Amino acid sequence: MRLLTYTANDTYGHITGDMLLKKVSDTLKNVVTKDAPVGQVGGEEFSIILRDFSLSQVNTIAEKIRSDIEHLDIVANDNTQIVKILSL
């Protein structure tokens, strides 16, 4: 999964970008089970290992991640609502 945090960093500063990463990380950990480790593999990239999951389960998890991140409330210092863009 890739998140475009560099725009948040450039526009609103690294504190906002870091807050975005933290909220996304917390969301991922809440969506997946202990059997699916989550890790940050780059500045704005996360990986989830989904071994022994059916395609249907993977699709359900991906949709839950997308939906939960879409509904995250992330506001910059100037009270601007941050738009989240991600690829799965």
Automatic annotation (TrEMBL):
Residue stretches making up the GGDEF domain: 1-88
Gene3D superfamilies in the record: 3.30.70.270
Pfam families listed in its UniProt record: GGDEF
Superkingdom classification of source: Bacteria
Official protein name in the record: Diguanylate cyclase (GGDEF) domain-containing protein
PROSITE patterns recorded: GGDEF
UniProt xrefs under NCBIfam families: GGDEF
GO molecular function, one term: diguanylate cyclase activity
InterPro entries per UniProt: Diguanylate_Cyclase (IPR050469), GGDEF_dom (IPR000160), Nucleotide_cyclase (IPR029787), Rev_trsase/Diguanyl_cyclase (IPR043128)
Organism: Jeotgalicoccus aerolatus
Gene Ontology CC entries for this record: plasma membrane
